[in-house]
Amino acid sequence: MPTPLAAEMLRYTKQADDLSDSTAVLNALDEITWSLARVHVLGGGLLPRKFGTTESLCVGKTVFLHKSVPKGWWEDRMELSKQSPPPGDIAARLAMAPFTFSDLMKLLEPIGIDRWAMELNLKYGIRDSLGCPIAGRWIFAYWSPKLISLEASEKSLLFLGAAFATKRLQQLAPPCVERIGKGAYLTPRELAVLRSLSLGRRVADIGKDLALGEETVRSHIKKAQAKLGVATPIHAVAQAVRLQLIP
After folding, report:
1. Cα separation of 53 and 82, whole Å?
2. Which of 120, 104, 129, 105 is nearest to 39 (CA)?
3. Into how many domains does the chain fold?
4. Per-residue pLDDT for 45 more than 80?
5. For 74-127, what is each residue's pLDDT tens digit?
6. Helix, strand, or coil (residue 45)
7. Which of 30, 162, 192, 199 supports an S-S bond with 41, CB 3.0-4.6 Å?
8. Do residue 167 and residue 186 come from a single domain?
9. Are strands 40-46 and 138-144 parallel, antiparallel or unpaired?
């Protein structure tokens, strides 16, 4: 017999793709994790293309926070991360499995200014967190007012929920021009068209979605191909994903 956490998490994986917005995605998962594992959902974020930068981190576009996150925490984190990158973000680029913040601190043994992330969390009542690296591009996290002490099987189930939540957040995320940086400049409309192509939408469907004529959609695709230096729409989508111009 599956545990209650396993049963509820499997149910979540089946319904995640039907949730209409990021708030619903995070709320549905938090209801499960808080009642059965005593951890809150913190949220998910698309890692910046360039390590150590924060320009592309935008709540509602590349970062999605749950309502349980203490007010003021994110704003302070953004300001302090300009001094040195958060250790959790470093681990997310390297790790292949979930990790707790408390274990990460024991491993790194930070001193001085490098302790800012731990001190910030304690200031806001975040005693511990569980980071889930997703495909080397996203980090999804849970948080708790107490030290997280979970069995490996429970962490695996939370990781499963994080993966499906991230998948849905990626589908819902709008194009983010700020992620382009100094690379090929694609307009918001060109990014939106490529984003729709990446989701399997046809030209006619994209035209209806964006209130554009089919020839205009094709024109945006051609312009994006030229800017990205590729010959086909499929290659344009692949290149945009590789450059992290679209989720």
Report:
1. 8
2. 129
3. 2
4. yes
5. 999 999 988 888 888 888 888 889 999 999 999 888 877 779 999 999 999 999
6. strand
7. 30
8. no
9. antiparallel
Residue 117, number of CB atoms within 10 A of its CB: 24
The answer on pLDDT for 52 being more than 90 is no
Query: Alpha-carbon distance 177 to 233, whole Å?
Result: 19
Q: 160 and 55, same structural domain?
A: yes
Please give the Cα distance from 19 to 165 (Å, whole number): 10
Structure tokens belonging to residue 81: 């991360």
Q: Which amino acid is at 174?
A: P
* pLDDT tens per residue across span 5-44: 999 999 999 999 999 999 999 999 999 999 999 999 999 9
Q: Does residue 225 lie in a domain region? A: yes
Please identify, among 145, 172, 199, the residue that sits at the C-terminal boundary of a domain: 172
Is the Cβ–Cβ distance between 143 and 132 less than 8 Å?
no
Question: Token digits for 34?
Answer: 């808080």
> What does the buried/exposed string (b/e) look like for 213-233 if buried means 16 or more CB atoms within 10 Å of the residue's CB?
eeebbbebbebbbebbebeeb
Kindly give, in sequence order, each residue whose CB lies less than 8 Å from that of residue 79, ignoring residues fewer than 6 positions away: none
Range of the domain at 195: 177-242
CATH number at residue 158: 3.30.450.80
Examine the fold and report which residue of 140, 172, 204 is the final residue of a domain before the chain moves on. 172
Q: What is the pLDDT of residues 199-223, one digit of tens each?
A: 989 999 999 999 999 999 999 999 9
**pLDDT value for 180:** 52
Q: Nearest 5°: phi and psi at 100? A: -90, 150
